[in-house]
């Protein structure tokens, strides 16, 4: 029994070290510039340990994003207005925009995993449902999906890099879209 407990503690410690290393590297160097070998080395574990703990790169990226998603979700579910219950659509859209802005490299790495990956994950399902709940008017389900599409990291990056739009202009446009009821 003591050996099994020690193995579990070691596995938990390795998982935490991998997440800490991946978070630091992704935030500092971007997702594309970091290999699984880099993460393993920074965490002080073998590459095989990284794959045993997370399975693949996608699962590791999701695990890095998870506490950030949880923080925003808790603020939406239990925080004070204007973001928490009874809060406004503009405050919610701003919070989503800021979340995507801060996490663009991680989100971009996940956006193209499959034809519906951006919309089918648990976090996006929550964001859509909450947005539809806060919106008023006709076809809030469609509008919530359209607003979330405007908040895709690849869309935001395209508008900035290829179209020369500013962050503030994009934010205002998403707010305008969300107000179109």
UniProtKB/TrEMBL annotation:
Domain HTH tetR-type: 12-72
InterPro entries xrefs: Homeodomain-like_sf, HTH-type_TetR-like_transc_reg, HTH_TetR
Residue ranges of DNA binding: 35-54
Keywords, alphabetical: DNA-binding
Chain segments annotated as transmembrane: none
Keyword Metal-binding recorded: no
PROSITE patterns tied to this protein: HTH_TETR_2 (PS50977)
PANTHER family: HTH-TYPE TRANSCRIPTIONAL REGULATOR RUTR (PTHR30055), POSSIBLE TRANSCRIPTIONAL REGULATORY PROTEIN (PROBABLY TETR-FAMILY) (PTHR30055:SF209)
Record protein name field: TetR/AcrR family transcriptional regulator
Natural source organism: Amycolatopsis minnesotensis
